[in-house]
Amino acid sequence: MDKIWQLVKPVPVLAEKLSQSLSVSLIIAQVLLNRGVKTLPEAEVFLKPTLKNLRNPFEIPNIVKAAERVLLAKEKGEKVLIYGDYDVDGVTGTTILVQTLRHLGIEVAYYIPDRYGEGYSLSIEAVKKIADSGVKLIVTVDCGIASVKEVDEANRLGLEVVVTDHHNIPQQLPNAYALVNPKLIPNEQPSKYLSGSGVAFKFAWALLKVAKLKDVEFLTSLLDLAALGTFSDVVPLNEENRVIAVGGLKLINERKRLGIKALAEASSLKDQITENQIYFGLAPRINAAGRIEHASKSVELFLSEDADEVQALAAELNKINTRRQGIGKDIREEVFERLKDQPAGAKVVVLEGEGWHPGVIGIVASRVVDQLGCPAVLIGINDGVGRGSARSIGGVNIYALLDSCRDLFLDFGGHEGAAGFEVAVDKIPELKKRLQEKAAELISDEDLKARLLIDAELEAKVITMSLAKELSVLGPYGEGNRVPIFVTKGMKIESMRAVGADGRHLKAKFAKEGNSFDSIGFGLGEKAAELNYNNMYDIAYRLETNLWNGFESVQLSLVDIKEANK
């Protein structure tokens, strides 16, 4: 798919000012400006974030009321139950609050719903079970903001509910004792973009403050969990989330938490753990339990202080993840075979399949989005119920698209980039029809054009090891802080070949003005047959370093290639 290259307009005067003030290169300064970092104080926080840069948790509405209710449970001798979601964000947030309540001397249990038997968030049956167990207070994590009927049922059964969540605010709010959701903050503010684990971390902080405990060491020890959830839930990695991500990543690499240490070993991560190793190594294994079996295995991994137990749990999560990968491969092959029959120009892909595992279809939907450049909705039909996962492209709000069909769903939730739902099988044909109609109305051809945002044009002479290493100050990367992409024009090819399984990748050497650079283009193997040694090319790439046989060199990670002057 041809991409439209969009070079961010340089701001040389501001870049020069930031460059001099921060003692960084003009290129680093320009990338900071491209990320919306425009002032010296903002840049200093971005480059060297500390816990002091976090906002006061009391700025989140109702958080003091919620904290006081939890602490009242200690006075009354009540047992508190933490009710979390089954993804990484929910699992880590649940662990944060279980540990915090234990630290405060409060009797606490946790409950993670079964993804398939109970579905997302609170359920009526779960509420009844919890009431029968003698619990008087439920605290949700990463869910609950849309659980109107379920909270009403809890109230009827004599339970009180504190909701901590970060998802979009629905039209009708539940009648909970307190709603702790930063999206209820009336004005624009960094806390509004916290993950579910980030909200749990802020609530833990509020609990300590209300209890008048200045336990910085304990609070800091929770950052590894908050960071795992923050990275995994694809929230913007700037401002408060960047503080959590940077501090948490440092703690993750200290491997003080036995569960993280064991999981890293099971994932064969021996060296420094980066954000990419979280995205593709740790997070899938943590998620796998909730997708294939039960997420409580991941909670126990993080709570346990028994070395033998965490080793066994980490090994089990690794095996579950391998099973998930096999299931995903089968579904992916079926989906892409059926896509061959899809009409050209569709604004949204909607496919259903009997027996498709609902814990895996979201990952496959992401692959469809990557391949076709349009939103994708996949529905797995199991036991007479359709469970769907939707993924989107930048600029298209999949939550809004699905919300137009809310009346067809048994359950529904999500955000702009991803959403999930349950639907009766007999409603699927109508759902497909309405989604196609609404997509045609809401999504323009312009929205579906693939765009590549380029941070700066670099001359060959400035592509150096020094610059490649300096760029590391901008990490960790993720949503809202993507890896910088550069373009260099008029490059000649010195060598090229397809490499990897089925020749999927491109290995090439480009040269200009006496400078030559090794490059790798993942997924660009077909370009080897298209490129011509006699032509000149403009290349878009990420600037990296590559260590081989003890020798470190500059490497260009290719994103796209175009013939020069075209």
TrEMBL record:
Stretches assigned to the RecJ OB domain: 454-560
Domain DHHA1 per the UniProt entry, residue ranges: 346-440
Gene3D superfamilies per UniProt: 3.10.310.30, 3.90.1640.30
GO biological process terms, semicolon-separated: DNA recombination; DNA repair
Keywords tagged on the record: Exonuclease, Hydrolase, Nuclease
Superkingdom classification of source: Bacteria
Any one GO molecular-function label of the UniProt entry: 5'-3' exonuclease activity
Domain (DDH): residue spans on this chain: 79-230
NCBIfam families cross-referenced by the UniProt entry: recJ
Family: Belongs to the RecJ family.
Stated name of the protein: Single-stranded-DNA-specific exonuclease RecJ
Organism: candidate division WOR-1 bacterium RIFOXYC2_FULL_41_25
